[in-house]
Amino acid sequence: MKTINAQKTTNQKSWKFFTKTLYKYNSQGKLSEEIKYKWDYRNNKFSPTRKKQYLYDSSGVNTTHYLDWNSYKKKWIEDDNYYQFFDLNGNLIYEEYIYTSEKRLFSWQKSSRRNNYYNHSGKMIKKIEDVWDSKSNKWKKYKKVIFEYNERGKEIYKLRKLWNDEKQKYINYYKRISVYDKSNSEHNVTTMFKWDKEANKWVNYFWVELSEGGENNTYWETGKRWNKGKKIWESDSKWKYLYDSNGNWLYDEIYKLDKKSGKLYCSNKTWRIFDSNNNKIELLNIEYNTKMNSWENDYKIKYKYNRLGDIVEEVKQKWK
User: Fold this and answer.
1) In CA terms, which of 62, 243, 245, 277 is 20 to 30 Å from 74?
2) Which CATH architecture has domain 15-319?
3) Is 130 within 8 Å of 145 (Cβ atoms)?
4) pLDDT digits (tens, 9 = 90+) for 216-257
5) Predicted structure pTM score
6) What is the 3-state secondary structure (H, E, C) of 268-315?
């Protein structure tokens, strides 16, 4: 089997186990359990840390139970519950999150809820989030997000507003506008704005352009940040993506800004390998050490699947 060659280094570091995640499924093939482990260097083995249990209801209600491993009591302690309600089209229309409070003898406490709204194409057009106010024992408005799409179903507008108790209305907070090339749906320019409360207007924040590269199935994303003082867009970051003919994400590069030189440099590279069923089976990330002026391994992940193509294991190793 083809594998990714790790970066050669001259120091004494080696691959060390870091985390592991196991996935289990019910008789209907739905995910029923997700267990996370962290490597215990003292005992030289993986130790459980957190578990998710998924319960499904024929009426469209899904419940996720979060449990934390208590190493002293040697058992799972329920921590959070997450409820999801779906419509007949499978769209998530309502979510509610509750947690256990140690201060209140581990009784269940409401935390947040969210209502989602969709258009006839199944695209989310609005979501409204509330938080629980334990003092008044009522739901309190928190955030509202609005989306708009073009005729091809691409998002062209996103507006986020936060609730203001004093004014008793939602106040502008963040806005994102995307413009797509009519002849090439993959090319687009996205501009992000933040609301300036004092000036009472939108101000530039971040700018991103996605374009095709010179190679087949290669794309570049260029990011620029707004300089308030100079009132100009300045280079901030860049990303390179490479896909295969099946749409699998094979490789990417991340470029960061060197504040001293004012130039971008490649800081991370990631490779991914897929099997004949288009399942991702291996990932390797390396990072550039600016002090040593050389590339070093960072982390790698290996994935295993069952005969149905469902992921059953994910093991992450760190270079230490």
Assistant:
1) 62
2) Beta Barrel (2.40)
3) no
4) 789 999 999 999 999 999 999 999 999 999 999 999 999 999
5) 0.88
6) EEEEEEECCCCCEEEEEEEEEECCCCEEEEEEEEEEEECCCCCEEEEE
